[in-house]
Amino acid sequence: MKFGKEFKKQMVPEWTEAYMDYNGLKRILREVRGYKQTKHPATHNKALQKKPTLDKTFSGLHKEASNLPSKGDIEDQVIDVNTLQHDGSGQIYKTKFLRQSEEGGEVEVMFFRKLDEELNKVCNFYKDKVEALMHEPAVLNKQMDAFIALRVKVENPDLNGSSLKRCYLSNVSSKMLPTSTTCSRDRNPGRDYVGLIPEVDTNDDHQQEESTAGPEVNSVSTAGCGCDHREEVNKDDYKEDPLKILEHVKINNTLESPISTIKGVFKDSKEEDLSFNKEELRKVEERLRRVFVEFYHKLRLLKHYSFMNLAAFSKIMKKYEKITSRRAARLYMRIVDNSYLGNSDEVTCLLESVETTFIKNFSKSNRREGMKLLRPKAKRERHRVTFFSGFFLGWSIALLVAIVLRIEAHNLMDKEKGTQYMENIFPLYTLFAYIVLHMLMYAANIYFWRRYQVNYPFIFGFKRGTELGYREVFLLSTGLAVLASAGFLANLQLDTDSSTRDYKTITELVPLVLVIFVLLITFCPLNILYRSSRFFFIKCIFRCICAPLYPVTLPDFFLADQLTSQVPAFRCFELYICYYSLGEYSRRQSKCLSHGVYNTFYFIVAVIPYWLRFLQCIRRLCEDKDAMHVYNGLKYFSTIVAVIIRTAFELKKGMTWMVLALVSSSVAALINTYWDIVIDWGLLRRQSKNKYLRDKLVVSHKSVYFAAMVLNIVLRFAWMQLVLEFRLRSLHKMTIITIFSCLEIIRRGIWSFFRLENEHLNNVGKYRAFKSVPLPFSYYETDDDDDDDDDDDDKND
Description:
One of its GO terms (biological process) is cellular response to phosphate starvation. By secondary structure, the chain is mainly α. It has helices at 3-9, 22-39, 41-49, 61-66, 105-133, 136-155, 161-176, 215-218, 258-266, 278-324, 329-338, 340-343, 346-362, 367-374, 383-410, 416-451, 456-460, 470-496, 504-507, 510-522, 531-545, 554-564, 567-581, 584-587, 596-624, 627-652, 655-680, 702-716, 721-724, 733-765, 783-796, and strands spanning 79-86, 90-97, 249-252, 271-272, 777-779.
């Protein structure tokens, strides 16, 4: 693979604009090449014959640049790079091209001007990100102090006084020091977990910055940087019990459960006192582990960002030399290597320190297990997934053809039995059709998200290395299609065969068996069929059901929006309960519509998805205090009113209900359409450079966005047909309902792509590639401490 494609592929999607514009520099070099070919074709062709292949590894790039001749001969010098100091913005690099007077020199001047702009941009971005992270190690050290003290306290409840202190010191020593030490060793435990200030080599261009984290931060060195990792202090510094730190600590209540949310409503503070039990210790350890993993991930992204940009600068300079036959790479790469991007090693030192701390405290000194958590392996594409996907797709198509041929062979649609099938059996199997179609749309979305580099795993918050690709989702959808089609064909075969008509009651149980089987697989605790993804889905479903009692995250409201397009599927579940619990299946007469309870739940089931989404808006309004959540909630409330009126018209008929249904449905459709296009997709911006769209677009073809808007409007108003009841004589009513329900699922799939695209572009605009993880502990000062501080101030006065 060429370096340009590999460079683009390896970019952090949210930082795309912060990377070096490799393709822009290549375009300038093409102009230089065109000039060289026009003016000096023989020399240029000879230079091209010496051009090596482009598939060299990154490790050899700097080596090739270093082997070039030095700039000792003044006649060979092509560029002069000046480093300018600017207050607040660090160093600015400016290159002067010394051969500007030659023909075509203006293009090369433009190349180096662009190169300097990219170097300054990359260095400033990298420096800002590193400096933004430097306060986090101090916070993590304090969290580790409290965690170690809590673990000792919980695991040794019978100890107290000096014995508890000795156990604490022994625990810290055994957990933190690289070699086994005794409790009497003079170390300051609990203050060097992460390595707060990595020591870097200083030179004329770079000076070590002063830390702003306080006295204890400045006294710490970092392991792996050629310095002692721990600062020795006297034992006399421990005038108090180290475990007294727990008196200044409370548990942060993140309101991530219904119980904690209810407690938070009746409490002014979101903090809880320590209870010193094993369950509390387990939760604290789990949350602190997530904090360390996320912090390590941030460091890795920064390290990768630095590495890729250094490789890009080396590669583009090598291309410049090949095209122009001028030797400038060595001098410029020396400047790049001495810049903050190439010379700063804070990230490397912090990576080593975090690895050491994490392995000793969260994986029982098992490096292999610790590194699995810190560096989860990327999911490999397996050939068997592709094979079985195609296999199941072929089977599902064959089964559908067999079903159609079976129906045509027995003329089921022309008999009274056919009417019974469409009213009783067909709705039971449409549940699987809705689910399979939704899964296929999701698989298609994943394919296009990956193609256009929309970072959907980060947006959804999937655990790294466990997210499903489009092949896996397509495999599950085709597998479910085969299962449902085989069940339907078996039902037809048993029912139409004269030798099996005595088992008619048993044949009616086939759909129920399929539903139970799918539910068992979904909730199966065994590590089969993508357990982590199944549990993530179940967790999101549960959080949607408990909408006001959980903080609303993007996966929660995204899934709730998907459920609003699955109202027919919810009604199918209601039909299952009525059809089998009342014994209707044994008589093949569905009289559910005549039951008052069924009709009541027919209303409730249709409203539930929109009601859950409405409650999520209320919860977000309470947390964010943003008026947009009020308008969003009113949108779902108008939809609830429209659904209720439309359902009443469907059950009761009448001209009055029809008019009310048309008006309410039209108003809801207009509001939802506007919200979809303007708010969720961010389109129809008047001041945008892309007329009637938005400034940034993932898909290069603008017609795709206009087609999506038109299609969304058409499909939004398609459900009006259920009110107007335009019927085709060749189609049964149930068939028409199924078709329009499938169209709504397709519309939701289209909406999902552009909704996540807009979210991704918002992250790109804010360079948001990290997720914030709440800390388990919060520190506070007691009244005694405040009094002591006041006494000290009085003495000083």
